[in-house]
Design brief:
This protein is α+β, with helices and mostly antiparallel strands. It is about 60% helix and about 15% strand. The protein has a five-stranded mixed β-sheet with strand order 6-8-9-11-10. A hairpin with a 5-residue loop joins strand 10 (about 470-475) and strand 11 (about 480-485). Helix 4 runs parallel beside helix 7 and helix 10 runs antiparallel to helix 11. The longest helix has about 70 residues, at about 230-295. The chain is rod-shaped, with a radius of gyration of 42 Å.
Length: about 500
């Protein structure tokens, strides 16, 4: 015998027990009341009260009707003449009994109806709370996968029938193979099919399509040999309708973000093309004119003048090299899947940066930190070195001769925090909002303040590609501090 059948039998036995108990008490009371000469109409009121209690406790009009009949016969047997028989010598009792039965049945139907309405109201309230909670959870979901998981969790907690969710491509779902035709029909026609419906009513399932007018998202398939009860059907329909609205919202948001990303890329390319002519032409012109002047006047120039001119040419070539190097990094970052990463020692990365600036002639002092050799980050070393180069180079441009530029490294929770600080005049407050966005906003006039330029835009892109963040602020030394962080990997956990 199944657990469900056992539970039903137990429930019925409890109802029978309640009915017999109340009827027995009521019969005992009617005999006691008759002994103290209470009028018959009061005993009938007692019967009505007993029937109402039975109906409330059993929630079944059959038990109320049976109790009414038993009480009528008990009254006839114990209280009407001739007593202790089912004979009656007063025909008025027949009318009283009929009226009593009718009143009992009417009261019983009203009680059952009120109980049913109260139950439906409670279930409706619970469904509204469930829908509200489901809607609240969907606000924290950021992908279709998370949304479907939220819907499945909600249904598992509130639906007794087995179910599965089939995504847009039905043929790719193993669970849907046997019922693919019905699911495809429901999805294509945007119509509920299965048990209790006009279409595919012979199948042991109910299919709720998840689609809007423009998009197909999938289908909810509930396995059931019988039609769903009306409250359950309405609940599932509400969940699926809400799910379609949320999925449509998510798709619109995704398409808007993708469109915005495409516009940003186009803006980036357009800005790049506009800037290339100036940013490449300026150092090339200086190199060309300087080398030509040197060639034509080498005999007339002193050794000091020749060295100064060569220094200028070398400086412009370094600027051109840095610019071209950043352009190459842009091409690498255009497809982040092509970035080769590995677990790299932070100490070795800092050493690479130090080695780079050892070859750079400058009258500023760059101070590097001592780094714990056990610190590792998952990174592409050349790109990460490029971040340091751009930030330090940015500081070199905007500080006075003899200034110190401090490079820092520390551990903050599960991340490694790097920073580059200077005293080069800081950043204008209005520049902060677009510091890493306006990639080619570098001003031709190099005053006490700096702008982002190509280098800072590249820094942000590289750091983002390494699951890190980068920020900037003015410091108390009268300059700027740039910070970026990367996820930490300790030695031994590689």
């Amino acid at each position: 015998m199944s657990t469900q059948n056992t539970s039903k039998i137990k429930t019925e036995l409890i109802r029978i027990g309640i009915t017999l108990l109340i009827v027995g008490i009521c019969i005992g009371l009617e005999i006691a009341l008759d002994l103290i000469y209470i009028h018959d109409e009061n005993i009938f009121l007692l019967f009505i009260l007993a029937v109402l209690i039975i109906l409330i406790e059993t929630k079944n009009i059959i038990y109320g009707a049976v109790a009414s009949i038993i009480l009528v016969f008990s009254f006839n047997f114990f209280l009407t003449d001739p007593r202790y028989t089912f004979m009656m010598d007063d025909l008025n009792y027949y009318i009283s009994f009929v009226v009593f039965l009718i009143i009992s049945l009417i009261c019983g139907s009203l009680v059952i109806k009120i109980q049913r309405k109260a139950k439906e109201a409670k279930e409706s309230e619970e469904r509204i709370e469930i829908l509200y909670e489901f809607s609240r959870k969907t606000l924290n979901c950021h992908s279709e996968k998370e949304l479907f998981e939220a819907m499945e969790d909600c249904l598992k907690a509130n639906l007794s029938q087995p179910f599965f969710v089939c995504r847009e491509i039905v043929k790719d779902s193993p669970e849907a193979q046997d019922d693919a035709e019905a699911i495809e029909y429901a999805l294509n026609q945007n119509e509920i099919v299965g048990k209790g419906q006009n279409i595919y009513g012979n199948l042991p399932l109910i299919v709720f399509p998840l689609r809007s007018k423009a998009n197909k998202f999938g289908a909810l398939v509930i396995k059931s040999e019988t039609p769903l009860p009306s409250p359950t059907f309405d609940f599932v329909k509400s969940i699926t309708n809400e799910m379609v609205v949320v999925l449509e919202r998510e798709k619109i948001t995704f398409e808007r973000e993708r469109s915005e990303e495409a516009r940003e890329k186009e803006k980036f390319k357009s800005t790049l093309l506009r800037s290339l002519s100036h940013d490449l032409k300026t150092p090339l012109t200086s190199i060309q004119s300087g080398s030509l002047f040197l060639k034509e006047n080498i005999q007339a120039l002193s050794t000091k003048e020749q060295v100064e001119l060569l220094d200028d040419i070398h400086h412009e070539s370094e600027e051109l090299y840095a610019f071209v190097n950043n352009l190459l990094n842009i091409s690498k970052l255009d497809d982040q899947n092509s970035i080769a990463k590995d677990y790299e020692s932070v100490d070795e990365i800092i050493q690479n940066v130090k080695e780079y600036f050892r070859t750079i002639q400058t009258d500023r002092v760059v101070k590097f930190p001592e780094v714990d050799s056990s610190l590792f980050v998952y990174a592409n070393v050349p790109l990460l070195v490029q971040v340091f180069v751009n930030l330090i180079d940015n500081a070199l441009k905007y500080t006075k001769p003899g200034s110190e530029i401090d490079v820092g490294c520390s551990v903050d929770g599960n991340r490694v925090l790097f920073e580059v600080s200077d005293n080069g005049g800081g950043i204008k407050p209005e520049k902060f909002s677009s510091l890493f966005k306006d990639i080619f906003a570098a001003s031709a006039k190099k005053d006490a303040y700096r702008s982002s330029g190509l280098g800072l835009g590249i820094c942000k892109t590289i750091v983002n590609a390494h699951n890190g963040t980068i920020t900037a602020e003015n410091n108390d030394k009268g300059g700027a501090t740039f910070r970026f962080n990367l996820p930490l990997k300790k030695e031994g956990n590689k």
